[in-house]
Amino acid sequence: MMRDQALRYAEAGWAVIPLAGKVPRTTHGVLDATTDPEQIKRLWLRAWNIGGAIPEGIVVVDEDPRNGSVTTMATLVGEWPDTLTVITGGGGRHRYFLDPGGPLRSGGNALGPGVDLLKHGKYVVLPPSIHPTTGLAYRWIDPDVKPAPLPAWVVALLRPSSPRMRTSTSPGRCTDRYVDAAVTGECRTVAATPQGARNDVLNRASFNLGQLVAAGRLAENVAALALLDAARVAGLSEVEAERTVRSGLAAGRRFPREVPA
Q1: 217, 192, 220: which is closest to 206 by C-alpha?
Q2: Cβ within 8 Å of residue 66, ≥6 positions away
Q3: Within the chain, how many helices (H) and strands (E) appear?
Q4: Best exposed site among 46, 63, 67, 104 by fewest CB in 10 Å?
Q5: pTM reported for the whole predicted model
Q6: Helix axis angle, 238-253 relative to 220-234, nearest 10°?
């Protein structure tokens, strides 16, 4: 059964490798993934699980409830579109999306505890593989659904230019965690804003972060870079975004924000 399914994946153009549980049974792991039917027949002499090399142009959001994905997903504010999805044997999900291009932070806990981002060069366990701990099968929710674009608000969170606040030892000032949450929230809102309201939302976000700049809690260049990256994700032109960010930050600097200690 597993070999037959591996052959079907290969026929569809998906390079596969045999897995013992989740561990590759080949010397070089994902580098040995193949679509060659004769090689697959030789490799699947036992009912090995099926690993699939993530194709170019695809990213996978991997949710593992044993490592905290339920809590993390509940804290992520944004809509997840219908997309090609696997229910894992461990009770998690593999959500397949189109790679938006450009650099993205990936690997373990990319979106928070238990929520990884996997890219081309990695592999995933494919249905109907059996989870080595639970004994449950991986299954597609609907194998005919196409991968959706990675949501803009997720892209904004994963860009490596995500801000890192400067530290401060001044008494009575807020921690970096407060500022980081403020910047992340504003950028998430900007990135997810539909056409027609993007410039207004960007202006308001720039004003809000300008208040933190005035309070001495946020470097202006860090705020500007984060906002511009979110604006690009939302689809604003570079010239328009730069003008709006500059104006909003300048306005916000006139009203320093009082922040908690």
Answers
A1: 220
A2: 90, 91, 92, 114
A3: 8, 11
A4: 46
A5: 0.67
A6: 140
